[in-house]
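hey can u run this one w/ 2-acetamido-2-deoxy-beta-D-glucopyranose bound, need the structure tokens asap thx
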Amino acid sequence: MPYTLKRGAIALLLIFLPICHAVLVNRTIDSNLGDPVTNFQPIYHATPGSDEWDDETCTTCNITPDPAAAFDNTYMSATYFPHNQPLEGINITLQFTGVAVWVFFILSNTNVHGNPFVSTHCNFTLDGQHAGSFSHEPDNTTTAFIYNVAVFSQTGLSNTPHEVIVSVNDFPIPTWLCFDYAIYTYGTFLYNLHRAHLPVVIAGAKQIAVTPRTRHRPP
Ligand SMILES: *[C@@H]1O[C@H](CO)[C@@H](O)[C@H](O)[C@H]1NC(C)=O
Ligand SMILES: *[C@@H]1O[C@H](CO)[C@@H](O)[C@H](O)[C@H]1NC(C)=O
Ligand SMILES: *[C@@H]1O[C@H](CO)[C@@H](O)[C@H](O)[C@H]1NC(C)=O
Ligand SMILES: *[C@@H]1O[C@H](CO)[C@@H](O)[C@H](O)[C@H]1NC(C)=O
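ok here u go:
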């Protein structure tokens, strides 16, 4: 049996749609300024009492990338010498909560000051497990630095706290590390309460017939 409704009444059928979007956002951890969202600062380890790690203002360093080409105009570098670190190495600890991570280094080629120790070699540990290594040998035909090199990446992580350690341990040859920044992808949720279907008062609403088809179907 057909029934009637006023249009105004139809308009009063409120439809609130709570839409839940899974959103992935990239955040950065700068070598010196850290993570502006969590305030995490990279942790630089070296042999106690030594001062291997230097920032871009170092005046005694002779492997000197251009800060203007670095993320946030900053970087941290250190050179590992096997004879200086017979027992302990140098490393960087990065902590974040997220589903993916990328670690960006600056790499050197031939050094303008003649420093031969420009190759980069390191291991990566993710949540306590060996997760890969990286090696770069200089191109001796150029003195140009290479910026924004993703030396490590990992996707498909759970959206939980993680720790990446970039390290040099027990390595037979000198190795130069220059950390610029890391990116990690944080998973978050946005709830939008769509209010597009607010009640509308229609002046002079007409009587209209609404016949739900289902009610007229034969059994
Ligand atoms: C995050 O950054 C990585 C590395 O640059 C990029 O591959 C990825 O597409 C970015 N993801 C988002 C959600 O912006
Ligand atoms: C990081 O470096 C410190 C100091 O050399 C050392 O004690 C520690 O074992 C290193 N950690 C890793 C994971 O290499
Ligand atoms: C580049 O120069 C370094 C340092 O002098 C040297 O050890 C290396 O063998 C050279 N590489 C090549 C491919 O010639
Ligand atoms: C990486 O780890 C391996 C295995 O522990 C070690 O032999 C090698 O020296 C490490 N490389 C560097 C650059 O520290």
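Helices lie at 7-11. anyway lmk if its weird
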